[in-house]
Specification:
The complex is a heterodimer of chains A (about 110) and B (about 110). With about 110 residues, chain A is an all-beta fold. Chain A contains no helices and 11 strands. In chain A, a hairpin with a 6-residue loop joins strand 7 and strand 8. Chain A is globular and about 40 Å long. In chain B, strand 4 and strand 5 form a beta hairpin. Classes of the chains: A mainly beta (about 110), B mainly beta (about 110).
């Protein structure tokens, strides 16, 4: 069964540092997403990406966040200057086409200290 | 803003019983909903999708969509301890193709051996 792969599984970083979270979506999927889940809270939408550009972003996805698909396979989420409140599980997800549900990666647990 | 509401639980059922999980939504025009299972510390896993009014069965799982009453439910027959997890209702996908979904807060299910 095809998988969405995320690395690293856990990252600890100091406040103010930049982090890059990496994802390899399923190869024939067309739509890519980043979601996050703060401990004990709901899964929240950050950004969707289609045809090599951002298609939608949430209020959470401010100027500190960016996404890229640098080489046609990897899909990255960068947080430029991390804050304590960025500590969460970050999930990458991809979808083949409408109306299918997402396949999620295993997530990256980001801890900002 | 499309809203998806779930009772956070926990919902406790004895092993072998039927677990009934419910979700209500705000958008009358919604067409598609998804149920995800999330074990503690893990990523959401798609278990059921439903795209039309009525019931959809897959093994021990039955999803029900009632558009008139704006609710979606998931029935788990012959509940097993391994079904103990948080169940996330997600939907509806936004129109326009990119189709991000909104997740509910999840209902925690505990199956008692």
């Amino acid at each position: 069964e095809p998988e969405v792969t995320q690395t690293p599984s856990h990252q600890v970083t100091q406040m103010g540092q930049e982090v890059i979270l990496r994802c390899v979506p399923i190869s024939n999927h067309l739509y890519f997403y980043w979601y996050r889940q703060i401990l004990g809270q709901k899964v929240e939408f950050l950004v969707s990406f289609y045809n090599n550009e951002i298609s939608e972003k949430s209020e959470i996805f401010d100027d500190q966040f960016s996404v890229e698909r640098p080489d046609g396979s990897n899909f990255t989420l960068k947080i430029r200057s991390t804050k304590l409140e960025d500590s969460a599980m970050y999930f990458c997800a991809s979808r083949k086409d409408s109306p299918y549900g997402y396949t999620f990666g295993s997530g990256t647990r980001l801890t900002v200290v | 803003q499309k809203e998806v509401e779930q009772n956070s639980g926990p919902l406790s059922v004895p092993e072998g019983a039927i677990a009934s999980l419910n979700c209500t939504y705000s958008d009358r025009g919604s067409q598609s909903f998804f149920w995800y299972r999330q074990y503690s510390g893990k990523s959401p896993e798609l278990i059921m999708s439903i795209y039309s009014n009525g019931d959809k069965e897959d093994g021990r799982f039955t999803a029900q969509l009632n558009k008139a009453s704006q609710y979606v439910s998931l029935l788990i027959r012959d509940s097993q301890p391994s079904d103990s997890a948080t169940y996330l209702c997600a939907g509806p996908p936004d129109s326009g193709g990119y189709q991000k979904v909104t997740f509910g807060t999840g209902t925690k299910l505990q199956v008692i051996p």
